[in-house]
Amino acid sequence: MNRRVLVKNAGIYFAVGSAILLGSSPIFGKQAILAGLDPTAVVAARTAGATLLLFLVILIYKREYLYIFPLGLLGCAIAGSLNGLGSLLYYASLVSLDASLGQFFYTLYPIFVAGLFYLDGSRPTNLTMIRLLLSIPGVYFLTQAGDGVVDLRGVSQMLFASCLYAIHIPINQRVLFEVPAPTVTLYTLLAMTVVTVPAFLIFSGPYTILPEAAILPIICLTVVTFLSRLTLFAGVKLIGGIQTSIFGLAELLVTVSLAYFILSETLSPVQWIGAVVIIIALLLAAFDRLDPPSRRTDGWLYWLRPPIPRRPSHVDNVGSSDSTL
Questions:
Q1: With bands split at pLDDT 50, 70 and 90, how would you rate the model's confidence at 110?
Q2: CA distance 25 to 250
Q3: Rounded CA gap, 37 and 163, in Å?
Q4: CB count, 10 Å around CB of 13?
Q5: Nearest one of 237, 89, 226 to 169, comparing CA atoms
Q6: For position 105, what pLDDT does the model report?
Q7: Closest by Cα among 54, 25, 5 to 181
Q8: Cβ contacts of residue 106 below 8 Å, gap of 6+?
Q9: Which residue range forms the structural domain that includes residue 202?
Q10: pLDDT tens readout for residues 15-40
């Protein structure tokens, strides 16, 4: 088995693993909210906990992962800040939306990701576009769970969260060209913490009581956040942001399944049809070209690169003099 196939398989495993982990996030978050914990407290607790956990692991086992070049750090800060704001909107919307319906609107992010990469000069394959278009009706069918009234404010919050999540993926992919995935994960989570913890202190207050029933969901959510971010950026590094986001559709399958078993949210025959359509879109990856993302010398994110050293002037002079001989 050649190296390209190994990289492709590893990227798929990481992307699917991230999707499975992320799919459980709204379930644990919804449980904590139903237990009486404020949404901003949920976001702040899981993000700060995951950041601290990853920092300790790197500090103990891989201190060299703490290094990052300045523009890479800026990229992680921008991506993390956007994602942190998106997380606040995401969990705020879960107050008024069912977990499965909210995940439907959030799972539209691969469309935004594909558009952003297109603007950055990346052209997806025809099969990738077919898989993306096929997934849209699948996502729609999967979230048809009844005749409940849809809260427009919650929908708007979730769609905005989806857009912000989509923007952070191409930004981090640029940084991942030069930086290991754990490093990008750490500084992105740190930026998310800088956004979410002050929001918690401002809107919820420092004296928020943690209900006993919310302790286990918060612990599970923290661990899931820690592991899902590592696998997400590892997948982006190996097979690119577009492909990773399409595999991320599997998180909707996980969310809907767990919502049925844990939160007693109903499933219908139409939802099963949607699940089958999404599974087909995922399985078509076996025939798609999932090459590692390549560096570009243009695009709206080209500035997120290490400084390019200038050649000494005497080297240029030698080269020019040699060309005249």
A1: confident
A2: 13
A3: 26
A4: 15
A5: 237
A6: 75
A7: 54
A8: 90, 158, 161, 162, 165
A9: 3-323
A10: 888 888 888 888 888 888 888 888 88
Structural domain count of the chain: 1
Q: Give the CA angle between residues 244, 246, 252 to the nearest 5°.
A: 110
How far is the C-alpha of 188 from the C-alpha of 168, rounded, in Å? 9
pLDDT in tens, 227-285: 999 998 888 888 887 778 777 777 777 877 777 777 666 667 777 787 778 778 767 76
Residue 27 contacts residue 103 (beta carbons within 8 Å): no
pLDDT at 43 over 80: yes
Q: Which two tokens stand for residue 190?
A: 């740190």
- How far is it, in rounded angstroms, from Cα 218 to Cα 241? 28
Rounded distance, CA 273 to CA 138, Å? 7
CA–centroid distance for 52 within its chain: 19
Question: Could you tell me the pTM of the whole model?
Answer: 0.77
Tokens of 42: 């949920």
Q: Give the whole-number percent of the chain exceeding pLDDT 90.
A: 22
Let me know if 34 is exposed, middle or buried by CB neighbors in 10 A (0-12, 13-18, 19+): middle
Cβ–Cβ under 8 Å, residues 67 and 183:
yes
* Per-residue CA distances from 18 to 23, 59, 244, 247 (Å): 8, 23, 9, 9
